[in-house]
Write a structure and sequence with these properties.
Strand content: 15-25%
CATH superfamily of the largest domain: Tetrapyrrole methylase, C-terminal domain
Radius of gyration: 21 Å
Largest sheet: 5 strands, parallel
CATH class of the largest domain: Alpha Beta
Bound molecules: S-adenosyl-L-homocysteine
């Protein structure tokens, strides 16, 4: 029996896979990739003769069936996931049938689209004395939100929100955030196909107008929504600089006698 690797492909740019992930692909007997965004990554790094399939039209059962079948004939099978496998990737639903079939599994992390979107727009998700917290969530669609996790409740923290799987629900984003006390004019960032060469779109707007802006740009899929009090800080007239670079600040490498430091 071979081993099945769940590999984070990153957000789309084939160069954003980890070195470890690329190495596993290069030695794979079979690769099952998840949709168009990571097709290029699979094709670019796969060895010749490797069996490659897209899981786009497969049920979860068909996916695990495919992985089990290929693990019977190949030493190494790769399940290539977008971004990082631990986020909205059905990792556990796939791992359990493999466990039941006594197939060994491994997971390689990937660059999540939340990070790729921030990078594309040169934004920081945390900023000293503005927010030190990032919430990764989604708007309730067909998948209901567990108790206590409505967007309105989460938005009351006034920290950074990275919203996955929600680009068609921008109206709900607006009403939930406004109900939580955010201003209609609060900045919003939408990045479509973050990191994807030639196809990435960066759309900036406010809670009030982001839906219209996305419609105008025909963006209604594969998009990350970031709402944060840090957005645009690169152009603020003044900034509270990070204490990490303050000469009086002590941390692990520059600990001052008698202080506890940080990190
Ligand atoms: N595991 C993935 C998320 C899979 S869920 C990750 O870590 O990124 C799919 C959602 O991820 C999409 O609805 C979209 O919100 C986001 N997404 C994935 N790739 C993206 C990309 N290249 N650009 C923007 N958003 C992306």
């Amino acid at each position: 029996m071979g081993k099945v690797w769940f590999v984070g492909a990153g957000p789309g740019d084939p160069d954003l896979i980890t070195v470890k992930g690329r190495g596993l692909i290069a030695g794979a007997g079979a690769i099952l990739y998840a949709g168009s965004l990571v097709a290029e990554t699979a094709l670019r790094w796969a060895p010749s003769g490797c069996e490659i399939a897209d899981s786009k039209d497969m049920t979860l059962e068909a996916i695990t069936g495919w992985l089990i079948e290929k693990a019977r004939v190949h030493d190494r099978v790769v399940r290539l996931q977008t971004g990082d496998p631990s986020l909205y990737g059905a990792l556990i639903e796939m791992a359990r049938p493999l466990d039941a079939a006594a197939i060994e599994i491994g997971v390689v992390p990937g660059v999540s689209s939340a990070m790729a979107a921030a990078a594309a727009a040169v934004e920081s998700l945390t900023l000293p004395e503005v927010t030190q917290t990032v919430i990764i969530t989604r708007v309730a669609g067909r998948t209901p939100m567990p108790e206590g996790e409505t967007l309105e409740a989460l938005a009351r923290h006034r920290c950074t929100l990275c919203l996955f799987l929600s680009i068609r629900l921008l109206r709900k984003v607006r009403s939930a955030l406004c109900a939580a006390g955010w201003q209609e004019q609060a900045p919003v960032l939408v990045v479509h196909k973050a990191s994807w060469p030639g196809e990435e779109k960066i759309i900036r707007g406010t809670l009030a107008d982001i839906e219209a802006r996305c419609r105008a740009e025909q963006v209604d899929s594969q998009a990350m929504i970031i709402v944060s009090p840090t957005l645009g800080a690169r152009h603020w007239p003044s900034l509270q600089t990070s204490k990490l670079y303050d000469p009086d600040f002590t941390h692990r490498f520059r600990r001052r006698v008698g202080s506890e430091g940080e990190g």
